[in-house]
Amino acid sequence: MPETAAHPTSPWFRFAPAFFVVMWSSGFIFAKLGTPYTEPFTFLFVRFAIVAVLLGLLALAARARWPATWREAGHIAAAGALVQGIYLGGVFWAISRGLGAGIVALIMGLQPMLTAAAAGMVLGERVTLRQWFGLAVGFAGVALVVTDRDTSGLENTAALVANGVALFALAAGVLYQKRHAVAMDLRSGSAIQFGASALLAGAGAILTEDMRIAWTGEFVLALAWLVLALSLANSLVLLSLIRRGAAAKVSSLFYLVPAVTALMAFALFDERLSPLALVGMVVATLGVAMATRN
Fold first, then answer.
1. How far, in whole angstroms, is CA 213 from its chain's centroid?
2. Terminus-to-terminus CA distance in the chain, angstroms?
3. pLDDT tens-digit profile of 145-190?
4. Could you give the CA distance from residue 287 to residue 139 in angstroms, rounded to a whole number?
5. Would you report the helix, strand and coil content of the chain in percent, each value rounded to 5?
6. DSSP secondary structure of 158-211
7. Which of 182, 184, 201 minimizes the C-alpha distance to 192?
8. Whole-angstrom Cα distance, residue 290 to residue 294?
9. Does residue 226 contact residue 34 with C-beta atoms inside 8 Å?
């Protein structure tokens, strides 16, 4: 990264938080773009394996610190399995079963709020009355969006359940990482986490899928974007922001992820939300903001 990008007053520093959130939102879009050409666990296995190899080579080239004990490596791998493997497995499976990218992003947008509430029990952090109220408001907003859809079919219900599993896995993974793997080197630790997630996705693919891939232009584009832009570049952008004191800006802009994803999904896939669903999205966003702001 050039030196000018590191200066707090540079254009990069001002626009990087918004850039990060737009990139994060695009992950749901490219997941939807690629899932028609292969099954979800196969898609994730290929993605995770490529990222693990690239990060492993980067860690070796940079002589990054690797875990000193198997116990430390196990904690890092477990956090990665939750944050990457189960979380993205649930998201990709839900999208492959027809759940809209905007709805998936909205449900996953509850993660900061859920993590803030669970931190009181897991990490001993104080959870205020405002946070509990925000949690209730956020879930009420999601309920408005979900009840506006036809979820009577088994397929729709299963997709919502998978999305819920992804939500709780991500929240649990964040807490687990904060407690057991916060000191890991970003390069070597991420290589381990993506490697563990590749094994998990590979097992799911072997057990439940035929592992066929139609190597179309759209699939290659989706895979390349998710590997290079999301798993590699955007992680480095986030690290840069946190090291330069912009983490609070990133957290606040996360409230916009569902809305940004919904706009992208409307423009690219003609996914539409009813007035009731739009109201629910606003209510959920306010709940998350209320539960997570300092």
1. 23
2. 31
3. 666 555 555 567 888 889 889 988 988 888 888 788 878 888 899 9
4. 8
5. 80, 0, 20
6. HHHHHHHHHHHHHHHHHHHHHHHSTTS-HHHHHHHHHHHHHHHHHHHHHHH---
7. 184
8. 9
9. yes
